[in-house]
Amino acid sequence: MKLLVRAVRGLVGLAALGGLLAVLLPHAWDRVFPAGGRGAEREDPATLAARVAEVDRALARALAPLGVDPRGIVETPLPPEEREGVSFRPSSVRIPLPEGADRGRIEGAIRAETGRLGFPAQVYFTDPDEVTWGVRISLGKFPTHRVTLHPPLPADPVVDPRHPPVVALLLTGVGAASPDVEAAIAWDRPLTLSIRPWEPHSIRYAGEASRAAKEVLVELPRGGAAPGGGLDEALASVPFVAGVAISEPDEALPDASAATVLVKRLEALSLPLILLDPPATSPIRAQARAGRVPLEEPAARLDPAVGDEALESAALRALNIAVRRGRALVTASADPRGIKALLDLAEGMRKKGYRFVFASEVARLGAASGPGSPPGSP
Predict the structure, then answer these.
(1) N or C: which end of the chain has fewer CB within 10 A?
(2) Minimal CA–CA distance to 60: which of 102, 25, 104, 28?
(3) C-alpha dihedral sign at 32, 34, 35, 37
């Protein structure tokens, strides 16, 4: 890692880029072959690690002219993956871009730098959502680099009053006693509550929400629907349910067969599905899209615990995705700070002309219009 930082500092003459690499480039060996990875002895891990490091340097060269602030870069290790018996650990890197960043030039620079490598690297450019750009790089069967580039967003996106964006606000993890939850239920706009089964106040809050014309989802928590049983038991434990939300779907549904069972049951019940914390590759997402289950994922999650700047960024992201897509789902946890953040954002949206709907409606709009399309578009 130190060698990489020195090399790039010498290349661009920017000490700040050393900080960029310190976050952007995880240790190559650990990224590709975590301890105990099966099959590593058959794949020449030293060569693969060296190639990952070369791709790291190529990405750094492509991004160096932008003056990226390394303090804004966030790296998240992804779950281990396997290809033909070889275990490796990719990572996801979030890079905020400065004003004036041009997508075409950035993609051209990345293609040019990776094209100069002495070995093949497959580069794919994607659109993870309406406001970010994605870069995926694979070395053979190993998807080693997952980078999301975040261009600056308009602070006040323009809302067309003839076609106002629709926004669903969702409180997650409802079930414990809280006067803040009760205050949210009394709010005079559409609100969806994701209620955990078998919690002390689950039934009470579901009843209060129904009487206040709010929407109720049953939330399958980490570990699936335990301790009470499967999906049907969870649905039976929470009244007035209009859909299902899943927190940490890889924990609740560990394999494709479990996802298939759930999707078929949701199809039979005509219930939509909300994925609260989906990983990059999730069997339940693929199964739901292949079936007839309306599916939606949050455009933004409001988490006051991450700090005011990150909270403001998430709120700005929600506004921009809603305007560009025509719809957005925004979530917050059912604790005092999360509820306040959600309702504060809602008040600002209301004044700007956004229209509020339930989470199930946003999911069905997405199913009718296609991912990323505004409601009613072909």
Answers:
(1) C
(2) 25
(3) negative
On whether both 192 and 140 belong to a single domain, the answer is: no
171 and 134 in one domain? no
Give me the percent of the chain exceeding a pLDDT of 90: 41
Q: Where are the alpha helices (DSSP H) in 241-294?
A: 249-252, 256-269, 283-290
pLDDT at 263 over 60: yes
Write the Ramachandran bin of 71: left for phi over 0, alpha for psi from -120 to 50, otherwise beta: alpha
Determine the 3-state secondary structure of 133 from DSSP: strand
Whole-prediction pTM: 0.72
pLDDT at 258: 73
Tokens 């790039």 label which residue? 8
207-245 as b/e: b if 16+ CB within 10 A: ebbbeeebbbbbbbbeebbeeeeebeebbebbebbbbbb
Rg from Cα positions in the chain: 22
Q: Is 312 exposed, middle or buried (0-12, 13-18, 19+ CB in 10 A)?
A: middle
pLDDT of 327 higher than 80? yes
pLDDT number for residue 16: 46
- Check if the beta carbon of residue 165 is closer than 8 Å to that of residue 355: yes
pLDDT classification of 233: cutoffs 50, 70, 90? confident
Instruction: Give the number of other CB atoms < 10 A from CB of residue 149.
Output: 23
If one compares 96 and 23, the residue with the highest pLDDT of the two is 96
Which carries the bigger pLDDT value, residue 29 or residue 340? 340
Same domain, 58 and 172: no
Count CA atoms closer than 13 A to 153's CA, side-chain side.
24
